[in-house]
Amino acid sequence: MRLTSVLITGGGGQLASDLEERLTAHSVRVHAPSRLELDVTDDAAVRAALDESGAGIVFNCAAFHNLDICEQDEDRSFEVNARAVKRLAVRCTESGTKLVHMSTNYVFDGSAPEPYGEDDLPRPRSIYAISKLAGEHCALAYANDALVVRTGGLYGLHGSASKGGNFISRLLRRAADQGEVKMVADQRLSPTYTADLANALIEAVETEASGLLHLTAAGECSWYEFARAILDFAGVDVPVEPTETVIPPGGVDRPLNGVLRNGRAEMLGLAPLRPWDEALADYMRAAELSAARAG
Ligand SMILES: NC(=O)c1ccc[n+]([C@@H]2O[C@H](COP(=O)([O-])OP(=O)(O)OC[C@H]3O[C@@H](n4cnc5c(N)ncnc54)[C@H](OP(=O)(O)O)[C@@H]3O)[C@@H](O)[C@H]2O)c1
User: Is 0.90 topped by the overall pTM?
Assistant: First the structure.
């Protein structure tokens, strides 16, 4: 499928920003309104944006995804992450627009010993995750040929505003403020650079992929190992204490195994994303956080 005109919701977010940058570099006409410019829960505004942009594809990067806040605000979670997706999917079908919808590794409970494939049964264990799984079903059921992409552990140069920057900037701030860091060593993930994910999404659309697709960086690590690697790349000599996950009463479950197998991407012949540590090194240089930048 040739990309000529694209609408990206959640403009200004980390993935949306990298997608916008890459698509623009490919001479694609991109409209990427922020939440204030296009609230995906406003059906009339979504319909108008589709009409006015004449987009052949919508990348739905909008999400309400602060885990703790989602747990407190179920209605908003389902409104943004599910009900708005259902209406967007209907509008896409009406206007003949392809929908690419972003979802999460958190749809799995993380109890399996192996990485999760597209065929594994989701068992979401938080309001965020349940609402995202509902959103997946809405996209697949209401939009023709929708592509639903699950990913995880995103970081990018345009840090997630709703989370106060990305994990990397928050970790470096904490290390500087506290002189030590504690990090869970029993939760595993594949940290994924949004610049790499943006390229993979574009390739997936060009190959006409639809249905469910897992896309994450190659390899995996614990949050402890991720934190250690970030501090090492930054040349920050601060001890990191590995800890075990403890969910306080009323706290939110985070999957211990958050690693996705990118089996379908391989089957479709899509280029695998780089190993997570290679991508991280690149990000640290691009963000001017790498101790090696002067060398
Ligand atoms: N971040 C991760 O680690 C991660 C992991 C797995 C999956 N994902 C999924 O990947 C996608 C992109 O995530 P990201 O990390 O790029 O998130 P992000 O940087 O926080 O971007 C999300 C954007 O959505 C906007 N938004 C929130 N509510 C909206 C609404 N009602 N209408 C329009 N826009 C709205 C936010 O605006 P405001 O900031 O102004 O609210 C923000 O700009 C999401 O679907 C997310 O669920 C993310």
Answer: yes
